[in-house]
Sequence to fold (418 residues):
Amino acid sequence: MEPKRVVITGMGVISSVGNDVDTYWKNLVDGVCGIDFVDDFKDMPVTIAGKVKDFDPERYGMDKAFVRKQDKFTQFAVAAAVQAMDQAGLKTEGEDANIDPFRLGVYVGSGIGGFEVQFRETAKMVEDPSGKWISPLFIPTMISNIAAGHVAIRHQAKGPCLDIVTACATSSHCLGEAFRAVRHGYADAIIAGGSEHASIPIGVAGFANAKALSRATDPKYASLPFNKNRQGFVMGDGAAILILESLDHALARGATILGEMVGYGNTCDAYHATAPRPDGSTQARAITLALEEAGFDPEKDNLYINAHGTGTHLNDVAETIAYKVALGDYAYKAHISSIKSMTGHMFGAAGAAEAIATILALRDRIIPPTINLDCPDPECDLDYTPNVAVKSDITIGISDSLGFGGHDACVAFRRYED
Fold:
């Protein structure tokens, strides 16, 4: 079978900088920071996070019973998927059904899953070891695949359904594997992305005690990718979902096409549980694989890279090295930025949220900034688009994600052309 072209026909997002794609994108371009103080953290060494604001689950058809029973990570995923499916116009049921339910899949992951539910029920068990007060819904609310399950239920998607869990690379891998499934004919469309709600006290305590988090006291100057003053990453919550669809299926039903996914790379550092491989070789290989599949031509293409850019010393330096290994001298020509400077680190949702930003950057020919990059690290000497968005006629965009355990992913996009 001839590989199919894969296009994006819908997108949805819940984030600290906006709960719809238009608001999210405008705030990224304008350099708006969604990080702020969190009351629940006021007695902790880390007091800030990129929390979702003004989220109304009922707006997305979730009734009070569902909301009461489900962890926020599932609610966020359902909301972002509703946005994406509404934009795509895909329906499996009714007179206006336009896709076979067995040809619609769901690849929605989470790095941690129902963290808040897990903490709450564990506290009950500590209080009373008999376990009699543990909710019967504890397991099916906590498991990380349940968001994908509820998305599938909501849209009657009866095709392939997977929950990939690769820490911070989770949703990039979900997109990549969905891309392959559609490209090789296993589905006509897949609802793909990730969701996370990890910025709760126990999550902050765990990452803070691992020396991974920024302890900055100014929330607007805390997430500092590629900045010499960086202290670590800032936690963020949210969800991001994209509809990946075969081009022929999208054209047959008259869908609006938002962009085309053209490449995917997947490697492992095989080096350390939390630290990236310092020579950048394995990260560079994921980037090279994605660019090769995308047909990248350094003589003709103008490249944008949406960086993983966490704001930790080890990541930012290793990532800079990886770009140089993958691209050679071209690395100095590429436009690069990290939107984590504004959203914080959305963990399992980060890759998909950054893929959306990459697609919109290609659409609007504008590079969102890395805000607060007022003191660049000399070891991070590439064009990281400091502080202000830049116009550029970019022709190809990639987003790379690097997860604990050494999981590396890179996804590539172009503007759609006939």
Summary: The domain at 262-414 is CATH 3.40.47.10 (Peroxisomal Thiolase; Chain A, domain 1).
